Amino acid sequence: MDSREVIETARKWSAAIAGCHPLPSTAWDGIENRMAGWIAELDAALSADRFDPEPGHRVGVAMARAQLTTPAVLGPTSSVLVDLAERSAGPEATRRLGALTGELSRGYTTELLASRTSRLQTAEELFHVVFDNAAVAIALYDVDGITIDANPTTERMVGMAREDIIGMSGLDFMAAGDREKLRLCVTRLMKRKQGTAHFEGRFCRADGTIAWGSWTMTLVHGKSELDMYIVAVGEDITERRALQEELQWQAHHDSLTGMPNRRCLLERVQAIVDEAEPEASLGVCFIDLDSFKMINDRYGHNVGDRVLIEVGRRLDAALASPSVMLSRIGGDEFVVLLSPPCDAERVNDAAGVALASLREPIPIGADDSLSISASVGAVLTPIDKVDTEKLIDDADTGLYLAKASGRDTWVLNRIGDGRPEN
Asked: Which has the closest alpha carbon to 215: 110, 101, 87?
């Protein structure tokens, strides 16, 4: 976040506070400059290589000392934190947001307690200022995971009234597949007897829908050593996670056919190399349609796209299995990746099946169809000789030889012995 964005965010923050509740005139002296400093500090914490939530505590203390003690200021403050997290390029912005929010709340409440303001005389009143006005979900649990209290944002998040939430186990809110993970996370936190833990998982709303949530859980000690509670600060990240998954899918798949793309293929090859035994082998079939340019030139790109989609569908129907990955890496180029164990017979079989699946004419209209063929450059290589980037080039060498031999054929290149074979 540059200085201009910091100043603009500070201006919006102060305007939001001014618009929701009047503050003492003394609270406005230089407030925008102070807010700019707080924003810069929080933004730096969100994007730091090594995360430290302490700036959240310092900002909470500074807010209380700046006489920003009216409960209504906490709503805009939470919104500023969420906005900073969304701007952050850091991969752990959600977890860091929860930790900073928790520390800001702790610092704010602690400072208000120390100041003994006339408006809020007890720790319970101070806690509920933060508790009831926070834009994030906050819930209090005992050491057995039973809900002691929950704020209005928690009510909205799970779709239940506070009186129904109180008394329920925190595990009861989680989807079945994530309950054990949460239990282990809390158990580790309790064994440490201090600190904070972060958890992301699926939870069940009252209407039966499943959503994703992110929580930061802090162990809080009471008056005695055995008197402990867990404060959980969370938010619904369903939409954010769906967007992340969609962007991840788009980055790894071909938009026309929906097949894995070149990036996904190379990542899978590298994963196989990292996991397989050195003496194992993998196979690749590089498929290129014969004279595909003529189809585009004669029938147009719409027909060409329909042909590519049908080729992808046929290859998938003929070859798909847990040990086979099919991808489109560009134009009319498709790749079949054969995971270990793999030998020449398996590669040759895959090449033959791929070509056979394309021999049936492809309908392009009510009374018209296209006959196509392809050539295949195949590679069989030991894992210890795999060069991920060069692997496609090795297959392309076989493809060149196959096309030189005529349509509808393949050539296998065995890395290590240099013996191409048809």
From this structure: 101
The mean pLDDT value of the chain amounts to 87
Q: Is residue 120 a contact partner of residue 142, using CB atoms and an 8 Å limit?
A: no
Burial class (CB in 10 A: 0-12, 13-18, 19+), 364: middle
Pick the most confident of 72-86, 108-122, 128-142. 128-142
Residue keyed to tokens 């303001």: 117
Domain extents for the chain?
Answer: 1-135, 136-252, 255-414
Separation CA 168–CA 237 (nearest Å): 22
DSSP notation for 236-261: E-HHHHHHHHHHHHHHHB-TTT--B-
Radius of gyration in angstroms for the set of CA atoms belonging to the chain, rounded to a whole number = 30
Q: How far is CA 281 from CA 346, 369, 395, in A?
A: 11, 39, 15
DSSP secondary-structure letter at 321?
A: B
* Residues 36, 42: Cα–Cα separation, whole Å: 10
List the one residue out of 252, 256, 383 whose CA is nearest residue 325. 252
Average confidence (pLDDT) over 314-325: 94
What pLDDT is attached to residue 130? 77
In CATH terms, the superfamily for domain 255-414 is: Reverse transcriptase/Diguanylate cyclase domain (3.30.70.270)
With residue 26 as reference, give the H or E element that holds it.
none
Q: Do 136-252 and 255-414 have matching folds?
A: no
Q: Cα separation of 397 and 389, whole Å?
A: 14
Closest CA to 134 of 94, 98, 88, 183: 98
Confidence at residue 108, expressed as pLDDT on a 0 to 100 scale: 84
- Of 131-135, 163-167, 369-373, where does mean pLDDT reach its minimum? 131-135
CA nearest neighbour of 213 among 243, 184, 182, 234: 234
Q: What number of residues does the chain have?
A: 422
Whole-angstrom distance, CA of residue 60 vs CA of residue 279: 59
pTM exceeding the 0.70 threshold for the entire prediction: no
Beta bridge mates, 202: 212
Q: Is residue 345 exposed (0-12), middle (13-18) or buried (19+ Cβ within 10 Å)?
A: exposed
Q: Which two tokens stand for residue 8?
A: 């603009």
Q: Which long-range contacts (CB under 8 A, 24 or more apart) does 323-329 make?
A: 324/350, 325/260, 325/265, 325/268, 326/259, 326/260, 327/254, 327/259, 327/260, 327/261, 327/262, 327/264, 327/265, 328/254, 328/256, 328/257, 328/259, 328/260, 328/261, 329/261, 329/262, 329/265, 329/392
CATH topology for 136-252?
Beta-Lactamase (3.30.450)
